[in-house]
């Protein structure tokens, strides 16, 4: 007569333990990923709500300059026949980058310097001279954010 094999409870059977362990591992990984995604989402929302008062300045000796700069909502603003000493301020959102291009007219032989400031912090500066000379200043949204922190 053979002895009956002892029965293993259902929760200790290999066919149950392995899938159950994998399911628990998947839930733990899903939870960790969810926390990471939520944190990243919060950071993006915070950056989107940031705003920066950016000051664009024109310096040098030129008196006939055409400029283009980034205004609110990433709109490009064009102005003609401006001279050294020109200044404009725009409030940019957390995603915007700041750009200022200053180009001498073909008849202008002076020097032109473009500058981008956040508060009193100079973020970008460039100089060009002579007829058609073009100075270009650019500041990324991260550079603007860093300058705003001081």
From TrEMBL:
Entries under InterPro entries matching the protein: MmpS_C
Gene3D superfamilies xref list: MmpS1-5, C-terminal soluble domain
Top-rank taxon: Bacteria
Listed name of the protein: MmpS family membrane protein
Annotated source species: Corynebacterium testudinoris
């Amino acid at each position: 007569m053979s002895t009956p094999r002892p029965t293993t409870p259902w929760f200790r059977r290999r066919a149950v333990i392995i899938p159950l362990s994998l399911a628990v591992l998947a839930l733990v990984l899903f939870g960790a990923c969810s926390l990471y995604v939520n944190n990243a989402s919060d950071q993006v929302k915070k950056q989107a709500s940031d705003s920066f008062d950016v000051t664009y300045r024109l310096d040098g000796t030129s008196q006939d300059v055409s400029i283009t700069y980034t205004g609110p909502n990433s709109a490009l603003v064009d102005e003609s026949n401006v001279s050294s000493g020109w200044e404009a301020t725009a409030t940019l959102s957390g995603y915007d980058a700041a750009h200022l291009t200053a180009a001498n007219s073909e008849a202008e032989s002076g020097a032109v310097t473009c500058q981008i400031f956040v508060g009193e912090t100079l973020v970008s500066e460039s100089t060009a001279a002579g007829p058609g000379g073009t100075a270009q200043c650019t500041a990324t949204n991260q550079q603007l954010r860093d300058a705003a922190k001081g």
